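Fold these two proteins, one after the other.
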Amino acid sequence: MWFILKRKLLHRMVFQKARLYRNLSYVHYPGKDSLRSLTIGKLLEQAAETYKNRPAVISRSQNQTITFQEVLIQADKLAAGFRSIGLHPGDRIGIWAPNLIEWFITDMACARGGYILVNLNPAYLPKEIRTLINSVQLSAIVCPRNFKSQDYYKHLVEICPELPDCPRGKLQSKAIPTLRSVIVISEENLKGAFQYKEIESLASQGEIEKIQEYQESIDPDQVCHMQFTSGTTGIPKVPVQSHFQIVNNSYFVGKRNELDRKHHVICVQVPFFHVFGTVVTVGGCLNFGATLVLPASGHSPDKSLDAIRDEKCSIIYGTPTMYVDLINRQKVRNEDINPEIAVSGGAPCSPHLFHEMKHVLKLKKVKSIYGLSETTCVVFNSMFDDDEYHSTATVGHIGDHLEAKVVDAEGKTVPKGTPGELLIRGYLTTLGYYNNEEKTQELIDPNRWLHTGDQFVLEDNGYGKIVGRLKDVIIRGGENIFPKEVEDILNTHPNILESQVVGLPHERLGEEVCAVLRVKEKHSTDLNDIVSYCKGKLAQFKIPTRLEIVDMFPKTASGKIQKFKLVHYLKKSKNNQ
């Protein structure tokens, strides 16, 4: 009798523990497709063979179209041309440019030639670019002559006064000692610099064949990209990515975005230099033969609408801010467009904005992607058959071959549905921050879990919700307030285009909640209106006690709001009052 009772108690304990473990915020999703040991260069070969004369990129600002076969041919010429001016596999080549066909070709040339592509924000100014070039020891830089108010050649001469007097390819600069070659996308003859087209023409047929033969020597685990973080928190770090990571992440994301179901034409609002551009956009194009439409060299909602209409784009890529602008213009223009899918990433997107996107842009589906430069790109992504809730209120389902867990401040896994820090483990974890072991160890723990710094909720079924950045949490009178929760309510206000919520110092409470708003044209709002609107929707302590109206938010070139700049501006404004 005692033996039977003991066995029942033991079974009950085991069952209770199993139920406890199942309830913890941990998920592993193996997926259905295997990981592939493949380089970007080999992937391009496959795309050129499969899709041949299909347009790979349509650049409307340049009035140019390039096919998949032409991409391969030009990439091999450029890769061989790089060798002819003294560049070697493993050298770092920076691309400092907006969305141009030459950006795409340079990316592919680096992959084919074994060079490491360094993605540089086209908005960087001389002081910034000098620091960043030195931080990664660039050997060469590719840039246009001009973009908007930027004169790139003039900027380079400013930081390398020796450039006009040095033989081309043999730059010797005290300010940037590793930089040897400057390549300008221009027909001008600029002293000390190569013309982009000239590099392509330098390669002999024999040198091009060597590039083709070299593909068997490139290891998929080899470093191929250095990706500066987007700078929402100040000083950029440099996550390092391999061919294997980019090829696989772009494949799984492409399938989730339904690129495998038909030939899609994609309106690309996001910049190439960001991981949304290099992985989701370029990588998806190579994996599935999608055609990329570049509406303009820089972001323009009107030109995006023109492109969607004229090129009959079936998918749109953008950040939430870009969609706010696009919706605003479509409400005015009411263009006859019929896209099927819009993919939003780069920053959290509110359910209200997703609903607006579907209604105003006449979409069948909206999809979310969530990830970091440190995770190659995407970790969570919408599935094919997501219902309304999962497609608009979550960031999607955990990606293939990945693990995720949510932990508290002591590192203990929390129950599902409980907020905590999101940790990720899998093939996409960065190889580390370049030349920064201390920060790498802070990012990736000894068990290979990558700490995202994002406050996250993991649901029962592998879906997740982002609550906000841990560092953005507002602590008001001892209460934790997550800005995104407040922003999601404010974004439903009929007069508000876009909102950002930040914490500002308060003598008694520690911090106060400040709402910073962009309002619709010919509309206005005040603090009393905001307080009244939030009552009954938010707890009293979460309701903003300060309001600022702005025309624009400070943003990175990839469309992310830079809250640290916003807080600095507001603190300065308050001190001057």
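Now the second one:
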Amino acid sequence: MSNSKTQSTLKIIPLGGLHEIGKNTCIFEYEDEIVLLDAGLAFPTDGMHGVNIVLPDVSYLRENRHKIKGMIVTHGHEDHIGGIAYHLKQFDIPHIHGPRLAMALLGDKLEEAGVRDRTQLHSVQPRDMVRIGKNFLVEYIRNTHSLADSFSVAIHTPLGVIIHTGDFKIDHTPVDGERFDLHRLAEHGAKGVLCLLSDSTNAEVPGHTPSEQTVYPNLDRIFGQAQGRIMVTTFASSVHRLNIILQLAQKHKRKVAVVGRSMLNVIAHARNLGYIKCPDDIFEPLKSASRLPDNQLLILTTGSQGEPLAALTRISKGEHRQVKVKAGDTIVFSANPIPGNTLAVVDTIDRLMMQGAKVIYGREQGIHVSGHGAREDQKLMLALTQPKFFVPVHGQHRMLVKHAEMAHQMGIPPENTPIIDNGDIVELTEDSIRIAGKVPSGLQLVDSAGVVHDNVLKERQQLAEDGTIVVAAAVGWDFQLLAQPEIHLRGVVTAVEKSLLQQLAIRTIERTLAQRASEMASGETSEIDWTGLRLDIEGSLQRLANRELQSRPLVVFLLQTPTEPQSKPARRRRSSATSVASPA
């Protein structure tokens, strides 16, 4: 290769997936070309009221849209493909290359969002080589994960080979028989890997992650002991787990009713592509499933994370139209709670138990295994690839640190293993790695109506925490109140009498009106700025509320202003109303 001093640098810029779990999105940039690797979403925290999904800030991509040559997709989980439809509304991605299952799931999302024409989808097979632009040649390397059809990638660049593991664990007995292509990783390691970016999710977990097959005998035992109906909930995207459950349903001579749109969708695509193998007649429509004897029915449902709208959550609350819990039901949670979901999950379990169901859950039951490699799997990845530089990705800060420490133990110098954050620009040459600045990397919050801006979220938080105060006042041309202002409190806890609060509000309004009248009389102001007046009063009322109530309720001030010309008498019947909500 040519001397690195005369060669451009390779920039690696993560926009999501660092110091967090979810919204994995990474940029590879060389000269005037950008390639994206995955574009996922995350789910909102408790304080994000009304928010449906969380996306990374992609303003850097919007500003550099002319450089985007294509996208690499590693697998079809929502935290890797869930943001693509939203991004395509802001900029085009000429080509998206990825596994067949991921492309099938993504195609549905793009159709639903109305952006299918903004890109071309291309399915890949193991060891396929894909040229993107003139500087990137991407090789797909089969790995093993909780979702079928998952890949690591070797990205050939003018500076050398970059390996990104995607999400992985090392499963020597995969359910679908598609083994991890460890040989190809070792070949790249022998030839020389410039940089490895590797999944850090289970960096705190010792040993190896068990094979997906280890859940089979435990679920088999539970199914064999169940006398009545069986309900099983797991991640809709856990194709291998779904395959095992369907195999066991056949073994125990039970029909399967599937509840939940996402699970129906994944099963349909996985069967079509051959990742789930079962006869058509094993499935029973939900509307006719109730006619079957209880010991011949298995209900497969979404809701393993206690999601408010998921099927099992609604079943536990008695709100599902077609499925009601019966005493004697066996309900199996074949998934562990994601951090942040634990309370919602245990609440669901409690409700199900109160209705007489036997609920089987917990790590000790052996009915769930992680899709991410533990420490020894991560060490094996480092040993096979032997990278010159190492960047731990996909995990919270402590996980990244633990993963970097493993690399140090295996001989990679600390100066070659930077701990990075979303937005950091990692600059690579053939001989060096450094953090060379930062790009915007905040959050983009989305609800059913669109993007939720910061001021809107702050208002929602204020409403939830401290309530709202609405004050309405009518003012004439002479800056006199035309009637006593009205004040309405919603969700506000206060020791102050409402009458006293109203008197204080009137004084505050009159003080601001008197000051504005004085300015008009002295000639300081020749035109009436109703908007400015409204904002001044609103700010004063907000400060009053904060001081008197010792809290921060959202203040909404409604100002009624005259519509007639100023030459007419001040007091008028006709008026127009304007309002503003304080974000403070």
